[in-house]
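Regression test case RT-17, inverse folding.

Input:
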């Protein structure tokens, strides 16, 4: 799969900083700028400003350009839900909807500098709402519609958001969840929110708060058909997306407009080789970075047609997704290892009864993909015809960092490896002193240069941004992941190196789960541990100490589950809860999660104590014995496996 016109021009020396900047300028030139930048890059570690003084607007780059090129009749989204309801939305219709929403929001006071939260299900309306916010030059912050009222409240508070765009309901596995009610609950405490835009999907009456809630449907007819896109400087914050870190407080990853869009535009082409006639389906929700970069901005900037699906992968039947691929003749399919592992367990007939021959490219994201699952994806789904593009990246990186490039010269694939870095990304694997490790050795994955898609900071927390990503290793971006680089320069991702779990491709800090657990009055202390899980890659096990005067019980387990759902969201389901008398700690009082994990994995205690010589050995032994007893009684009926 060669496409020489796209290959990273070999005539320039990519070691030379000026040439590197010129390379990125060439990529940026493919976007519709209102005014060209005066400087490619201002780099004051850890803050990169790309395409300084350039003027651009994201909704213009995603919509207006195509309308101007006569593509208004082209399908932007084929939308379908789990009941089989479906509709198509053309670029012209999406453009109109975006302008109408922008008009409604502008009339309600939304302007450049405001933060607007989007709390919506996977619908074309969500895409229009996101784009409408960017059209006004306001900063967008999508909160995944599976997050709870408490999680929403936190994000409103941190972002000082003045507006929310939500809907009455979201559907999941045949149930409807009242989103508006969750918003009302989140707004019970005093906060910065001034107006709530509500999209009505059902006919039923809605409880509205006078002066605050505006029903979008009621204002739609009178709204203007065109709103002038607000031109913003390249480094104007396009969006804030909250993601988990090692503390209980989520981080507001902030992305620029010009640099971010340039990077997304370039990387979707490089990795997936999108074409005018591509039918593309990325299964991610807009609540995650994948849903931003590769459901909204990337596909729309390229003017391609996408499928958008609202619902669970295997509902009402396990062939739901394969049916969609066959019906829409999808050519590029991008999903997560968790979904693949789940499908691999079902009867293969669910797949083979559908014609998947339209597929050309397969993508994977979110977690390490095991070689067996990779091979299964390649053989069974791709019919041995389609390269598997395993894309390693993060909320912070904005776009793909390590992935095979089907749109450039495609390297030989190795099942389970994300292969090589994207053009001009200096990824490396280093030891704790910052030195590159020899091939085949595990170490920390870092990036040694700025790139246009990198986050411009943490919202209103520049010091934390510096401390988390740029201080551990001098002059390098620290990803928080372990990796191995083999002798051929291929990267093998090995999961997180910090106290962050990756459950079904969703990042959750152990600290957040622990704080939700100790919010239960009967719980004194808790530790959350990631263990390997056959479907979701990683699952969470909670160890909890019961407060004096309370006793452990099934009800208490239920209360903990309830609390994690209330604090984080209903997608969190602990796969084991153990009540213990004490937790193994270092002498300085840090919980030794490694010990707990070792017990779950059946390692002898001796192996554990040698790992951490500051540990109080007696305490470790005591906890170890107690846990073994508990484990033998409970014997993991919960399908969490230890490695
Ligand atoms: C973390 C980032 C990037 C979009 C989805 C998740 C893990 C992501 C891969 C991959 C192995 C991967 C890493 C990373 N991860 N993609 N292809 N192979 N691990 O975004 O929530 O920011 O999580 O997901 O551990 O640090 P995120």
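Golden output:
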């Amino acid at each position: 799969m060669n496409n020489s016109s796209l290959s990273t021009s070999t005539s320039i020396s990519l070691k030379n900083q000026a040439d590197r900047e010129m390379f990125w300028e060439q990529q940026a030139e493919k976007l519709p700028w209102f005014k060209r930048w005066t400087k490619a890059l201002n780099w004051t570690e850890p803050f990169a400003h790309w395409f300084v003084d350039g003027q651009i607007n994201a909704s213009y780059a995603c919509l207006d350009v195509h309308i101007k090129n006569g593509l208004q009749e082209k399908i932007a989204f084929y939308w379908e839900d789990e009941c089989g309801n479906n509709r198509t939305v053309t670029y012209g219709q999406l453009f109109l909807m975006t302008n109408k929403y922008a008009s409604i929001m502008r009339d309600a006071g939304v302007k450049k500098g405001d933060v607007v939260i989007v709390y919506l299900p996977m619908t074309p309306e969500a895409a229009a709402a996101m784009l409408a916010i960017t059209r006004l030059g306001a900063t967008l912050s999508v909160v995944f519609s599976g997050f709870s009222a408490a999680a929403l409240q936190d994000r409103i508070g941190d972002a000082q958001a003045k507006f929310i765009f939500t809907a009455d309901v979201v559907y999941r596995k045949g149930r409807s969840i009242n989103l508006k009610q969750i918003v009302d609950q989140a707004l019970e405490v005093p906060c910065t929110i001034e107006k709530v835009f509500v999209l009505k999907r059902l006919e039923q009456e809605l409880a509205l708060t006078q002066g605050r809630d505006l029903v979008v449907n009621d204002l739609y007819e009178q709204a203007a058909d065109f709103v002038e896109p607000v031109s913003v400087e390249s480094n104007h914050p396009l969006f804030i997306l909250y993601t988990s870190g090692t503390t209980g407080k989520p981080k507001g990853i902030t992305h620029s407009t010009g640099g971010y869009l340039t990077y997304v535009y370039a990387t979707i082409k490089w990795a997936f080789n999108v074409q005018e006639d591509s039918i593309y389906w990325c299964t991610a929700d807009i609540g995650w970075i994948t849903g931003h970069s590769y459901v909204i901005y990337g596909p729309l900037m390229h003017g391609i047609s996408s499928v958008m699906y609202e619902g669970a992968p295997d509902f009402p039947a396990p062939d739901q997704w394969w049916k969609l691929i066959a019906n829409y003749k999808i050519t590029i399919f991008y999903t997560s290892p968790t979904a693949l592992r789940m499908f691999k367990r079902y009867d293969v007939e669910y797949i083979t009864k559908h014609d998947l021959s339209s597929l050309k490219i397969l993508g994977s994201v979110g977690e390490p993909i095991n070689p067996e699952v990779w091979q299964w994806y390649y053989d069974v789904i791709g019919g041995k015809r389609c390269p598997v593009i395993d894309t390693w990246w993060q909320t912070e990186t904005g776009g793909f960092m390590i992935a095979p490039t089907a749109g450039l010269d495609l390297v030989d694939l190795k099942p389970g490896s994300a292969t090589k870095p994207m053009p001009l990304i200096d990824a490396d694997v280093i030891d704790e002193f910052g030195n590159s490790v020899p091939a085949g050795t595990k170490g920390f994955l870092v990036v040694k240069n700025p790139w246009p898609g990198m986050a411009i900071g943490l919202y209103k927390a520049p010091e934390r941004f510096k401390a988390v990503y740029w201080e551990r290793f001098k002059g390098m971006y620290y990803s928080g992941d372990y990796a191995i680089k083999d002798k051929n320069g291929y990267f093998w991702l090995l999961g997180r190196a910090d106290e962050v779990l990756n459950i079904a491709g969703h990042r959750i800090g152990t600290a957040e789960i622990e704080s939700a657990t100790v919010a239960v009055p009967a719980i004194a202390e808790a530790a959350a541990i990631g263990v390997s899980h056959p479907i979701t890659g990683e699952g969470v096990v909670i160890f909890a100490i019961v407060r004096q005067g309370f006793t452990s019980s099934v009800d208490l387990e239920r209360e903990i589950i309830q609390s994690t759902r209330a604090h984080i969201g209903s997608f969190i389901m602990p796969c084991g809860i153990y009540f213990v008398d004490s937790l193994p700690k270092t002498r300085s009082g840090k919980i030794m999660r490694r010990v707990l994990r070792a017990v779950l994995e059946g390692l002898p205690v001796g192996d554990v104590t040698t790992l951490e010589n500051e540990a109080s050995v007696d305490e470790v032994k005591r906890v170890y014995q107690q846990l073994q007893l508990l484990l033998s009684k409970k014997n993991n009926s919960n399908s969490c496996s230890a490695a």
